[in-house]
């Protein structure tokens, strides 16, 4: 648990090269490239990685080259380096690379990784890793909805989603939680009152939905029809 608390505020200056390399493969925010560079100015192995990696902005590569006291890199040289790097990247899938990491490293990735990384780690067999995905500041409502729908999701993950006020403003997430048999009945039944009549009718007929939720949907449908 102590390791978990230390990793909440992930410091990229101490993240392992393996973690940073995987982060670089799935960055959606260009600003993270510069953040990685500036926090690793005394780690030549990380700077070298940035210099050769595809999609790193040229201004970041310029900063890295200056820090390493290297001559300016031409556009053609960059293309050659990126082409070689592409071949190395695709030799091993993102999933394979992530599977080799420790639990602590996977938690780091869950907290800062891009969409592809989050999609992989949301299904991680380690509870702490999969739950950390929900703490990633970049996670989208669509991703949360998919976790809420997934019958393999941890009950704790569903509870955390239900406690988040912003996520619970999204009707699709409400429906996903209410109809997921893994959602604790007390939470699922409480959501029935927020469901539209047309959807209540479908829930009542859906045998894959928790019986308590179906019964609540039936009662509410009857009430609405009589008023």
List keywords for this structure.
2 domains; 64% helix; elongated; disordered N terminus; mainly alpha; single chain
The total of helices stands at 16
The helix-and-strand class reads mainly alpha
Number of domains: 2
In total, how many beta strands? 0
Q: Which term fits the overall shape? A: elongated
Order of helices and strands: HHHHHHHHHHHHHHHH
Your description of this structure?
- With 227 residues, the chain is mainly alpha-helical.
- It folds into two domains: 1-138, no CATH class; 140-227.
- The protein is 64% helix and 0% strand.
- The chain is built from 16 helices and no strands.
- It has helices at 2-7, 17-25, 31-38, 44-52, 58-67, 75-90, 94-99, 103-112, 115-121, 127-132, 141-149, 155-163, 171-179, 185-191, 197-205, 211-225.
- Helix 2 (17-25) runs parallel beside helix 4, helix 2 (17-25) packs parallel to helix 8 (103-112) and helix 11 (141-149) packs parallel to helix 13 (171-179).
- The model is unreliable at 1-8 (pLDDT under 50).
Question: Summary?
Answer:
The chain is mostly helical.
List the helices and strands and how they pair.
Elements lengths: L1 H6 L9 H9 L5 H8 L5 H9 L5 H10 L7 H16 L3 H6 L3 H10 L2 H7 L5 H6 L8 H9 L5 H9 L7 H9 L5 H7 L5 H9 L5 H15 L2
